Amino acid sequence: MADGLRQPGLACAFAALIVVGELAGSRTGHRLTAPLGTAGSLAYALLGESAGMTAAHGIPQIVAVVATATLIGSIPRIAGGFGPPVVEQLARRVLATAFAATCFQPLFTSGALGRLTGGRGPAYALSLVLVLALTTLCEAVLSALLAQARTGWPFAPLLRDELRALPGIGSAMVATGAVMALATAVAGVWALPVFSLPLLLTQLSFRRYEAVRATYRQTIASLARATEIAGYTPPGHARRVAELSRSVGRELGLAGRELDVLEQAALMHDIGQLSLIDPVPDGATEPLAEPDRRRIALLGAAVVRQTGVGTPVARIVELQAEPYREQPLAARIVRAVNDYDDLAAGSRVEGPLFALERLRLDTAAEYDPRVVTALHGVVAVRDRGTTRYDGSTGGPGPYGDGGDTAPYDGAGQRKSTGTDR
Predict the structure, then answer these.
(1) Following DSSP, what letter does each residue of 351-419 receive, concatenated?
(2) What does residue 253 show for φ and ψ, rounded to 5 degrees?
(3) Over the stretch 353-401, which tens digit does the pLDDT of each residue have?
(4) How far apart are CA 233 and CA 345, in angstroms?
(5) What pTM does this model have?
(6) 43-80, pLDDT tens digit by residue?
(7) What values do phi and psi take at 23, rounded to 5?
(8) What backbone phi and psi angles, to 5 degrees, belong to 119?
């Protein structure tokens, strides 16, 4: 790098590919996905030859080109206010590329890789795939560590989320990166647009899929607000329960699809109240007798099934009023979080402290102790207004006097936070 950019045409071709991949990327919650940019970066790191000529770029140049191209492609996201995820993605990309280049380039330039694989046969291609597979595994661990540092969520579920994504788009990135490196070695940079087109189309299809999922989530949120619009439940109740339920579920080790189902069930847990002739006072189901709660739960499950949201969601809504030992974990979470919100909102003097203490006293029969403990931890960290069991106190709570640290505004809309998903 001290002598300038080596093989600038080759470097610019890969840089352009990475920029295009970043521009075509998508955002899912806190995650930024750019498969084509990742595949191009890994292919450049594993490039030994171009059109039959030895590639002269070294590890420093590889890292510099990938970092610069990723940053340029991320400018629209930076301008859109997605700073922290962009910085995190840049760090992952640079470290993964450096790892792959460090594993491959010294072996290739010294000739050791050629001696081990016997030339450019299947063994050589397999070695590229193995390096890329190891790189993606290391990147998954790094991504989970960065997410844990940013959000404070448990490491194991975060890592499980990352590993679950590898067989899908992760395998496509590995395969495309290896094919790009092999094809460029034979045909030069002209192979890049040919072999990047399938992954680019897949990436665009993924963006459409995410748009459909976003519409689906908005539909569920709109259905959940029906009870608020009709005056059966207070504003923001469903969203508060969904937010807290998802956080508690993550604290207890749920991840991926399990969290999505939990969140959907929490949003729609009160939908059965629409079938009542006489509304429940303040929409609070916590003071009701068990037969009344079961009736509302059964009515809600019937409504959920008719909407086509899904059987798992309907099952959680249906079982939320049962004894906790007969409930799946998601139903236990919804039951505890709903009652917490009812108690906290209905007791503005005591607030979260009173609500959590009530739940803790009923753990023998009504609530799962693990869920109550996880809920206490989530509320204490998020609101910084809950008196801990050791007697220490924080600031004002979300329902108490002098503070507004709840993640929702007065209209029930979620506020913007640094850890929104």
Answers:
(1) THHHHHHHHHHTTTTTS-HHHHHHHHHHHHHHHS-SPPTTS---S--SSSTT---SSB-TTSPBPP-TT
(2) 100, 5
(3) 778 888 888 777 788 889 988 888 888 776 654 333 333 333 333 333 3
(4) 12
(5) 0.66
(6) 999 998 888 788 878 899 999 999 999 889 888 877 76
(7) -65, -30
(8) 110, -140
